[in-house]
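Worked example
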Amino acid sequence: MKNILVPVGSTENGVNNLRYAVSFAAMSGATVYLINIYKEYSKAGGMTKVTQVAMEDNQAQLDEVLSRVDTEGVEVIAKPIKGDPYEGIARVSKRLNIDLIIVSSQSVEIRDEVYLGSITGRLVKQTDIPMLIIPRDYVFRKAENILLAVKSLSFEKENVLNPLRDILALFSAKLNVLRVKTPDVADEEDQLDTELKEIMTTYTETENATIYQGVLEHFQSHQPDILCVLRRKRGFFKKLFEKNAVYKRDFYTTRPLLILCGIQ
């Protein structure tokens, strides 16, 4: 993972996420791209000045975030980007060959009942780039145990586990696989993927109505430093991310959440 993208929402979340990204990059040798999205207004009716003010405010926020983080010798490139939040992030990610996006669960508006805000939720739903969602005020620590929660043991997308493999190697971490058998599981989903077999340390199987219920049941016994899930064409997480915002009653974790795109 050589290129990490950190979009700024609120200043506090931007500081928290940049600190995490810098610590991550200090271990991996990655470059961190810190961006802030601002709206471009129509040039008609003198709105050009409004756009200029928005860009200047945006740059000032980037400068404040940078001033509050010790970059530890990591290369951090900061730039304001015009456009809507999702389109801007998607455009920059493609141009810079981003390997990992580090974001807050809620980027701007903080609502206690919500786990994923609308901007983060939309990114999760539409991007195929691995995303690491950092809880509010979470302090970086070297991950020793990663919990991968899956329903199916086989994967449609080739090399879908490569980002997870990279993180395991970076941290010298153990991978604990939690296979949650739900009532709709198909027989072909029982075949253990060769790549998964190579990287897993422990394997636990449980029967629950949803993957989330299985995670809740086994979370304490595993005590993961990172929780990893896959977004697929169907299943619990496909349904969960159909709407942009995700409520805590439907899904919530106090650990960083790594989301991989399992859609071919």
Remarks:
- The longest helix spans residues 47-67.
